[in-house]
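Support reply, case 0932

Customer input (verbatim):
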Amino acid sequence: MFALAMRVADVTKGHHILFIPENIIEYALKLGFWVFVLAPITNSLIKISLSLMFFRIKGKDYWWRIGLWSMIAILIIILFSSSLSIIFSCTPVSGFWHISERLGGHCLSISKNADLSYGFGCRFKS
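Our regenerated output:
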């Protein structure tokens, strides 16, 4: 994921968007799309693996088992809902990186994406 983000920086070379050709912008947006999709997946999987590690350590206590399995279930729900909200933030999905398709389709505004990210990421901290 970090390599994809660094590739975006390498492709755009830190120039202002007005000075970057359209094909480079679309390539950078396609890479950015995968960064946005992979970020909640990797974060949730790390939290699930930590929960399973705690389960191995404290799994004999009944309330720890209930709490950890509940947290794993919530993390799986967050994983799917946040991934789907990012993938389908533009209709058609390729409108995320094809600038010309954004005119004919529909994409969520930046504030809506921020609200979704806040809702999935901050409301259910683990």
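We compared this against your earlier run and they match. Two observations from our side: The mean pLDDT is 81. The beta strands are 90-91, 106-107. Please reopen the case if you see a mismatch on your end.
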